[in-house]
Structures are given as structure tokens and as C-alpha cells.
Amino acid sequence: MSESLYDRIGGDAAVNAAVELFYRKVLADYRINRFFDNTDMEQQIAKQKAFFTMAFGGPNNYTGGDMRTVHAKMVKNGLDDSHFDAVMEHLGASLTELNVPAELIGEAAAIAESVRADVLGK
Amino acid sequence: MTKLTIGEKDYNCEPDEVVLDALLRQDVDISYACRQGTCQTCLLRCTDKVPLTKSQSGLKDTLINQGYFLSCLCVPEQDMTIKLPEQSDFFSEGKVVVNEMLNRNTILLVVECQDILEYKAGQFVNLQREDGLTRSYSISNIPQQSKTLEFHIRRLPGGQFSEWVHDEIKVGDQLLVSEPQGHCFYLPDRKEQGILLVGTGSGLAPLAGIISDALSHGHTGTIHLFHGSSELEDLYRIDEMRQLSRDVVNFNYTPCISRGEAPEGFSSGRAHKVALDALPDLTGWRVFLCGHPEMIAEMKTQAFLKGASVADIYTDAFHVSVNE
């Protein structure tokens, strides 16, 4: 059996490195940072870590239902495709900065993309 | 099968069973949520030295140092003694040895106390009066050096405990001191790392303790302290800090005043803003923030955006007790 994307990217250590880089970009982005105004940063980082683990196909308990529930309030406040696109952009940029090979970034992006409908409540 | 001890009681843990499941199975009430090490709700503390590495992944180093672990991830390799979060309130006796004013509204209270081996500068304890009235205060000295605990207690109008300390307490009075709590303290590793400390009001207490601790461990990185208040009269230990910055080459001190024009030698503006202007890049820095909750929330984000890693940001927000 071939190694999972999670292991090929570098497992837990890669996730840790990627999460901070990514979340810094998100918080600095005027298009989307209002959605994070009232969140505790440490908890948010832990959640992003779970999100990255999921995007890398690592061990996680994410379900579509969870994604729907936790984002429902934000959808009500205007969360749409443009915001999801911005997050995808930062995901790609963070992994590029960490010298993750392009084809692995593509795989990760495809996994993240697969939750778009759930996140946006479609 | 391993044994888990909590207080007087023993519980068993099956091979391959995690601590959380074992305790829940035996009706121990533990809060939990994600069961995958993300939410950190099921954090427990192990008081004997056993390997916990896997179940400490992602925790702050100061929590790891005290034996905290995620019970949803921990399959014990050997017997463990465990403390539940609400079990940390064991009190020992303390005696007031000094009470003197630091400025117009903050008093220095020094309490002599036995068994302070585990107490760290920057952590906090609950102080309890005879009738049970209890408040949290931060430790501003290195307890092991003098076998005392020092606190800076600001008078809050209508605050029962602080008014008692300011108006009535005398040298020789007894009070109860809880075990140390909190994860805002110095760990003697990465001694070349820059340290930024920002405090408002009596937030100087933990920070002064942390600075003493860092210097006593021979910290070589640059240390910057920004202490702020709205008015000059509410700052304190200004001369001592200035003297320290002359004596210690890597220590820098900036007193800040947020209301009105600052006199010479003081910076004008809120302490965290002055700090952010002075230190535009915090990549690789260790950051300590103590005092006003809003300052801390704002500065935490700003320090992170300027490059500090979340794991390197330690905070202690002073929330005013609701039932003053």
C-alpha cells in the first residue's frame, strides 16, 4: 500500500509548521478576518490543525455534519464561495512556502475542496 | 492492566484503553469533547514522573513541565497518580511578613509559607481569608530564594479582599495559600531567545517575577519590559526597573502612560502599542502578557501576526471577580 498524503507531506510536524503560517495569512486577510474576530486564537489553531490533518488525509474525525454545524452561523453572516476561495488560496500559499511539492499540494487542495458544500451549507 | 490513582481511590485501566475511557467507565466525571486531542477539554495532570509524550502533543511547554496531559490520547505505560482539575485547591498556611504601599493604590504583600518548592514566579495562587473569602494573585518573586511569596495587590473600589488587605491586614496575620496554578512562567531553555513582556497595572507582578527568574537562569537574549498605566501615579517600581536596565545589559524597560502627555523618560500610549511600534518583528520571540483582558486579547493576535509562535505566547488575564 502506498504511503498516505499525510505521511508523505511529513505528518504531525508538517501540520504544525503549516498551521501557523496559514492562520497568520488568514488573520491578516481583510476579506475573511472578520469571521475570526471573536475566536480564541489557541482553540482556533487547534481546530485548524485538525482541518490540516484532514486536508492531508491524516487521522481525523471530521464529518460533513460537523462542518455544516460549526459554519452555519457564519453562512448566516455572509460566508460564501469567495471566502472559501480565499482560504484555499492561503492553504496553497502556506504549503508552497514550506516547499511542499506541487502535486502533493494539489492532492491536499482536492481534499479541502471536497468539504466546500458542507462548509457553505449547500 | 495499569492502576490509576486519584486521591484515595484506585481505578483500573485495561491494556490499550485510554485514561479518559477508563475513568468514564468507572464513573469518574470528566469533561471531554473531541476525543482526538484537539479541544483539550479532557486535560488532566499526572503528579508522578511517567512518560506522557504522545498525550502531550500540542500542549504548551509550561503545561508539559507540570505533567498535564490529554486523557483522550493517553494509554498508560505504567501506574499513574492523577489530579482532576477541581482537585488543585489544597491550601497551606501563610503568615504576612511585609505589607507596604508600592504606589497610591497597590500594596506589596509578602507571605511566609512552608513547602514552596513547586511555586514558580509568574504563576498565581488563591489567597483565602479566615472566613473563606478567596481571590487569585500572581507571584512576583522567586519563592525558593526567600521562602516567601510576594504579591502586588491593587485596591479595587468595593473589592472585599483587596480592601481588607489594604485597610486591615497586619504583619503576623495568617491566611491560607493554595497550590500554584497557571502556565505563565519562565522555562530555562532557549536562553538566547528574545523575551517581550507587556503588563498593565499590577500585571507587573508576574512579569517582575518572570524577569528575575529568567535572569537568575542566565538568560542571554534581549529582554524588553513595557509596563503601562493610564496615569503616572499608577505605575510603580520605576526606579528599581530603571536601575535593573542599567545593571543588566540585555534588559530594557519602557514605562508607558496612556492618558495625556508623558513626561520625559516615559513613553506616551498604551503599553502594547508602544511595544509593537518598538519591535516590528517578533519572529522567534517569547511573549508574556499580563493584566487587562482586552489588552491581552488584542496583543496576543498582534504578536502572532508579527511572527511570534502561539506556543511562545504566555498570558495571564486579570479578570475582576464578579462578586466583589
What would you say this structure looks like, in words?
The complex is a heterodimer of chains A (122) and B (324). Chain A is mainly alpha-helical. Chain A has a single domain (6-119), classed as Globins (Globin-like, Orthogonal Bundle), CATH 1.10.490. Chain A is built from seven helices and no strands. Chain A starts with a helix and ends with a helix. Chain B has helices at 19-25, 61-65, 143-146, 160-167, 204-216, 238-247, 271-278, 293-305; strands spanning 2-6, 9-13, 43-46, 68-70, 80-83, 91-101, 106-113, 124-128, 134-138, 148-154, 174-178, 195-200, 223-229, 251-257, 267-268, 286-291, 313-317. Chain B starts with a strand and ends in a 7-residue tail after the last strand. Helix content of chain B is 21%, strand content 29%. Chain B folds into three domains: 2-87, Ubiquitin-like (UB roll); 91-178, Elongation Factor Tu (Ef-tu), domain 3, CATH 2.40.30.10; 195-317, Rossmann fold (3-Layer(aba) Sandwich), CATH 3.40.50. The mean pLDDT of chain B is 92. Chain B has eight helices and 17 strands. In chain B, strand 13, helix 6 (238-247) and strand 14 (251-257) form a beta-alpha-beta unit. Classes of the chains: A mainly alpha (122), B alpha/beta (324). The interface between A and B is medium-sized, with 18 and 15 residues.
Looking at the overall shape, the CATH architecture of chain A is: Orthogonal Bundle
Helical residue percent band of chain A: 55-70%
CATH superfamily of chain A: Globins
- Largest sheet composition of chain B: 6 strands, antiparallel
Q: Alpha-carbon distance between the termini of chain B?
A: 49 Å
Widest sheet: strand ordering of chain B: 9-8-11-6-7-10
Largest interface: A-B, 18 and 15 residues
Number of helices of chain B: 8
Structural class of chain A: mainly alpha
Element order, helices and strands of chain A? HHHHHHH
Oligomeric category: heterodimer
Estimated share of beta-strand residues of chain B = 25-35%
Q: CATH homologous superfamily name of the largest domain in chain B? A: Nucleotide-binding domain of ferredoxin-NADP reductase (FNR) module
Q: Using DSSP, what is the number of strands of chain B?
A: 17
Give the % helix of chain B: 10-25%
Q: How many domains comprise the coordinates of chain A?
A: 1
The CATH topology label of chain A is Globin-like
CATH-defined architecture of the largest domain in chain B: 3-Layer(aba) Sandwich
Percent strand of chain A equals under 5%
Number of helices of chain A: 7
